[in-house]
Design goal:
Layout (H helix, E strand, L loop, with lengths): L1 H6 L2 E8 L2 H4 L4 E11 L4 E10 L2 E12 L2 E6 L7 E10 L2 E6 L8 E7 L7 H7 L8 H6 L1 E2 L1
Antiparallel strand pairs: 1-2, 1-8, 1-9, 2-3, 3-4, 4-5, 5-6, 6-7, 7-8
Length: 146
């Protein structure tokens, strides 16, 4: 999908999530940077960064597009790990992704905002218009906002 190649690159800040790694408050200010490595089929560098005890930590991987979804594979020691995720919607500077359960993580959703963008009342808008953002009421109930 050409739209993903054009819209995903850049840095996205996680503003709402159901992912336990971000809910524990041991890891703060999570962000994901996507960079196109190959156009056809789409292959992205996937760099997750967060703060832990004041230090920036990174998780690097590669996303391989498979139809409308992506398969994430870790780099280095994380190469044995993989997970599937999909873009639920991209509306302007708001990105919603849903990930399937993996060997080490449960299924969940992240709501992200492009770095540098201002999205007033994001939580309120998403909750009030959850169907527009492709989210179920159950997912909305579980989301914690950052």
């Amino acid at each position: 999908m050409d739209q993903f190649r054009k819209q995903l690159p850049g840095t996205w800040l996680i503003k709402g999530t159901t992912f336990p790694m971000w809910l524990s408050n041991k890891r703060n200010t999570p962000r994901i940077t996507y960079r196109v490595l190959e156009k056809e089929p789409l292959k992205l560098l996937d760099l997750v960064e967060y703060k832990k005890k004041g230090k920036t930590k990174q998780i690097k991987g590669v996303d391989y597009q498979i139809k409308k979804a992506f398969l994430w594979r870790g780099n280095g020691l994380l190469k044995i790990l993989k997970s599937r995720w999909e873009v639920v919607t991209i509306k302007g500077d708001v990105l919603v992704i849903r990930f399937a359960p993996s060997l080490v993580t449960p299924a969940g959703v992240d709501i992200l905002v492009r770095e540098g963008a201002t999205v007033p009342d994001l939580a309120k808008r998403v909750v009030q218009h959850c169907a527009v953002f492709g989210l179920t009421t159950e997912e909305i109930r579980k989301i914690q906002w950052k």
